[in-house]
Fold:
Amino acid sequence: MAQDTLAITDSRTNRTYTLSIDQGTIRAMDFRQIRTGPEDFGLMTYDPAFMNTASCQSSITFIDGERGILRYRGYPIELLAERCTFLEVAYLLLFGDLPTDIELKQWVNDITHHTMLHETTKKFMEGFRYDAHPMAMLVSTVAALSTVYPEAREIYDLNNRLLQMKRLIGKMPSIAAMSYRHSLGFPYVYPDNDLSYTENFMNMLWKMVEPKYVANPVLARALDILFILHADHEQNCSANVMRSVGSAHADPYLTTAAAAAALSGPLHGGANEEVLKMLDEIGSKENVPAYIKKVKDGHGKLMGFGHRIYKNYDPRAKIIKWTAEQVFQVTGRNPKLDIALELERIALEDEYFVSRKLYPNVDFYSGIIYQAMGFKPEMFTVLFAIPRTVGWLAQWQEMLSDTEQKIARPRQVYTGHETRQFVPIGQRGVLASASL
Ligand code: SDX
Structure:
């Protein structure tokens, strides 16, 4: 098939270049041949925040932002959320296909037997202040696991790599639960291998003095669905960090900790915590119009709204809204839902948001569910990090297997000083003020 090409004429030299178009992209390195002379470095592309730059080829997750489509390995998110468990979807993301019954049983058994944490983790956790943010505790503790499993740095030993990935997936709920119990001053609860992934997480969070924790099946399923929805989202900020740090061949614990640190940002995974603070600040449905005016006047953002890719309704937000109704039948309706629904209703009609294609994203409703389940807002991003660990690991291993990838090291456009004369310290203030 004839190669698609782009013809470019450089007005500085009147030379014309023909660049190949492949999968809707031009290779940035193809621009380097466009030079004004032998001394010229050649053209680069400039794209702050990667608004229009593909950093990799990936077969894990597909998003169509205009149509609000999200698929994991080709399966629509709506189907997976309705028909699968989180560990089944984790298997799909990591290995490329849905598991058979035997494969799933083995996979669940493997993950279940990696939920225990080394006892030193308790001493490490005790070092945090009583009011330490659980996300900071999670990031630090995941990084600390690098000291427990030094063999993890052998990232091209595939059996070792798989073992470390199982450990990370199995231990994330345990670390999350420990950070939650630490913040309440409660004793830690050990995993119960009789329980499912989400039931065991609930056990480690909420078991008190009863001999055996029994999870509410509606809440356990709701958490499972929420974990499926949060598992991966192609090249989001934290996935980019996972790939970038991983490209330096850091071990998977330190790399995952870096990705979790990115997720903690309020513009990324931290938004779900910010949504609750925003709803608390609004206080009632009657106050919604005034708050929206404040945002439109440039004072802050509507947290849980907007997305770099989705210029339509985030498909995950729709499923989360449905899940909320299931949870509220058990927990009682969260009154903040009424404020959120009014905020959404008004925003979706308002030209400011419509013109900017700002719709509710995955974080808009998730916090309301988590709060109804009894989680404090500080825990919301931790609940995001648990399932996203699977997505990070899927992106990480795909990067390691991609023969085109090497250590990530972007270029820059230098805008600083040319060479300057050194000024002895005794003359600096004088010379500097004299040159102003
Ligand atoms: C997640 O990438 C992913 O996939 C992330 C994620 C995942 O699963 O990993 O989906 C999870 O991080 C969801 C996003 C959670 N963040 C929030 O809800 C925080 C609030 N949202 C915004 O900060 C913002 O929408 C971003 C960061 C999500 C996206 O920002 P962009 O694409 O960089 O867009 P932008 O900031 O350039 O906004 C374009 C315009 C600007 O206005 P103008 O300068 O054109 O006048 O829209 C405005 C922005 O000011 N705008 C908002 C807004 N989001 C963008 N105005 C009010 N409220 C908002 N929420």
